[in-house]
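Hi D.,

Good news: the full-assembly prediction came through. Inputs first.
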Amino acid sequence: MEPVSPTIPRKQRLATVWLAGCSGCHMSFLDLDEWLLELAQQADIVYSPVACDRKDYPAAVDICLVEGGVGNTDNLVLIQQVRANTTVLVSFGDCAVTANIPGMRNMLEGADPVLRRAYLELADGSGQRPHAPGIVPELLERVLPVHEVVPVDVYLPGCPPSASRIRAVVEPLLRGEWPELSGPDLIRFG
Amino acid sequence: MNLYSLRIDDHDVAIAADSTVLQAAQEASIAIPTLCFLEGLSAVAACRMCLVEVSGNDTLLPACITPVQEGMQVHTATPRLQDIRRTLIELLFTEGNHVCGICVANGHCELQNLAVEVGMDHSRLPYRFPDRHVDLSHPLFGMDHNRCVLCTRCVRVCDEVEGAHVWDVGWRGEHCRIIAGLEEPWGAVEACTHCGKCVEVCPTGALFHRGDTTDEKHSDPARLQALMQARQQQRWNP
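Then the structure:
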């Protein structure tokens, strides 16, 4: 008879991603304070602008929190990698869910009018358009909510979502359960 | 007083024959979501949030303007109605530019609260991002058309309560918007008495006090009801 080895539960692989947003959702993530220590015991943070040095999005990620809308060519490449390599994609905060404040540039109808407005019309006389192909990512014509680009599994609205709201999503996901979100404390925009 | 008996969801209600279905539901403590409706103003059924199902009727009826009938059977929260209400709120969010995080009415907005009530954690419809303007020509107040849901409460309160009729509805379809005077800057309309009733009844951050910044607009529609009551009882007559 073969010896039975004790099964060690595999740590979940967690990532967080920052697209077109202000990083406020990530600041709120850091507001989880001491619960971050518990999180570190239950999950390996494999990609994150605030908790990991890795530059390329890894394979086989279990849960990814995506902050921000999809606003430039870098965002577009990254969100497609995230979707391809992630089991549960969480649309994290109002910019990811609605395009929110970055989406306000959509009212100017196109990347060109936005750049003209920002770098020439509002400049003090010495304005010039940035031009660094291959270095500065090009703006997309519109900033889009994440779910208008790739399928999303969980929506976590808020500007930013509070730490307790983030925990209400991440905690059940780590247990392999689906978060049930309703009511003003968990789904109110703003 | 002539009374009608009707059944709303699982409740039997007896109510004056000249009542609406919405009043009958309120009598039975059944909450039907509303947006354009405001106690004290005429009902116009603009927003369709209060749509209900009435047995024997193929079409859905807006509770705020549908008169009660003897023996009526009303359903207020079927899955079909819940889906329609969520879709209506998504239509309102995607039709304008509602950026809750930086809005004067954040935390005190009827549209934002309705989104929670109907369970909207995202919009299944694409956002339009229309190009709309902000009228800051009035010395005390501002009008941000990005946040307007065309409920017409401002139009009605100015006409029916203040008697000034500064506001009206102009244009059609996607160009439809609230206009001041004869499509003039608000500050140029001499009929405006600066009373602020339109700001008070606006359910969103579309009408606001000029000094208000994010989260600072706290409307209280109950003030309108207090005013209407005082007038009715002639409490302020000399």
